[in-house]
Amino acid sequence: MKTMPYDDFMDHYNGYAYKNENAFNNKQEICYIPENAIKSIGGTIEYDQAYTYQDFIKLAEEYIHLCATGNVGDFAAYIFECCEWQYPETVIADIESD
Fold this sequence. Notes:
- The chain is 43% helix and 23% strand.
- By secondary structure, it is an alpha+beta fold.
- It has one domain (2-97).
- The mean pLDDT is 83.
């Protein structure tokens, strides 16, 4: 299990998550940890799943491959933007159902 300082997490409208726009834009490090990946809250937070820019790109590539349309980078950014507390895969499922 990995840890991160508690102060790095933020309360979103519907939940609690780590979301770092600079990390996403710099394509270098963890940029998102959804609420349900958080296992412990205290001075540090333990988590078992985290997402990087490359993870969002892979999710976007998979979706765009299925739909045969769109720009991967733009869609990856859209998925990231839509994530508030949930897993990115859930965001994609919500997009598919609309």
